[in-house]
Backbone:
């Protein structure tokens, strides 16, 4: 597929989009490519809370190592 054909298909798909979040993400990706840099990603309060919780779990030793995680996955898949 040539660059012209690909651009045409992308334009058609973008024109058909109604989801604003997808349009914003496409714009962000294009801005990265055109500007050569990415804007800072702002975390939501919920994301920050999840990170804080995960860091506390790690600090308290409440995590699985690779081997333990694989074992739990295997047991889950075998059910």
Residues:
């Amino acid at each position: 597929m040539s660059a012209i054909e690909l651009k045409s298909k992308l334009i058609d798909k973008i024109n058909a989009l109604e989801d604003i979040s997808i349009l914003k993400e496409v714009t962000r990706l294009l801005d990265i490519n055109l500007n050569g840099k990415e804007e800072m990603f702002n975390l939501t309060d919920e994301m920050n809370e999840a990170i804080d919780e995960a860091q506390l779990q790690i600090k308290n030793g409440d995590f699985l190592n690779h081997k333990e995680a694989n074992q739990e996955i295997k047991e889950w898949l075998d059910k």
Remarks:
- The helical segments are 3-16, 20-35, 45-59, 66-77.
- The chain has two domains: 1-41, 43-79.
- Residues 57 and 63 are 7 Å apart (CA to CA).
